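#dry-run=false #mode=assembly
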Amino acid sequence: MDWAKFFAMGGYGFYVWGAYGVTLIVMIGECWLLRQRARTFTRRDGQS
Amino acid sequence: MNWLKYSAPQTFYSLAGKLAPWFAWIAVVLALIGLYIGFFVAPTDATQGEAYRIIFIHVPAAWMSMFIYMIMAGWAAVGLIMNTRLSSMMAQALAPTGAMFTFVALWTGAFWGRPTWGAWWVWDARLTSELILLFLYVGYMSLTAAIEDTRRADRAGALLAIVGSINVPIIYYSVKWWNTLHQGASVSLTKSPSMAKTMLLAMLIMNFSFWAYAIAVSFWRVRCIIREREQQAQWLKEVKE
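#status=ok
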């Protein structure tokens, strides 16, 4: 399997990975924000 | 089994906490299978080359953006009519995920449009109505966040969500009603899909992955909302973790 050829995506690499990359970032970002939101409780509950 | 008991926030809180990790794992596994088929099994498109592989996330994200909106408006309506607390919380839990999928649909659409149409963006009916959907989600989120009293916030949000739901069929039928640059549906309930079987399979698996993701994330978020709203409740103090 030629990975350089795979990542080039027949010349459309920028578009394909630009689409997939940002999708992955926003999905992980949503989970991260949610984790922060949940943490404010565990922190406060731990103190009280 | 009494399903109705799960409509109470305190019972749903622990149920959602138990189910969410399972849906998260299903989402990851299906995404890996879907991406494998999408990138290594599905053939290169004859006219679009490799750029078409964006559809494996674009189409499921666009479907999810409309589907989540309808579910959100549905829960908001139930909350408005029946005055059930959990329904309104569920509506609020879905909004950010719906907005995220709408953004993904627009973003991936732009990255597909540039190489195939030669434009990142055009003001055609499909793209414009999808952008309005993003504004509706953002409007719903800002409105409910801006009103201090949660019951009033739920009611105002529900009205916006219900009125805004008129936009969803407009998005869906926009490619039929107007002469759009955006192509018509490749997959519909009434005729057989106009694409290769492996392409369709990858797209459907990615769609189920996004479904599982949306369920997991909205369950986690509804737990946060329940905790935020019921801070003073005794049952929360008894919940471990």
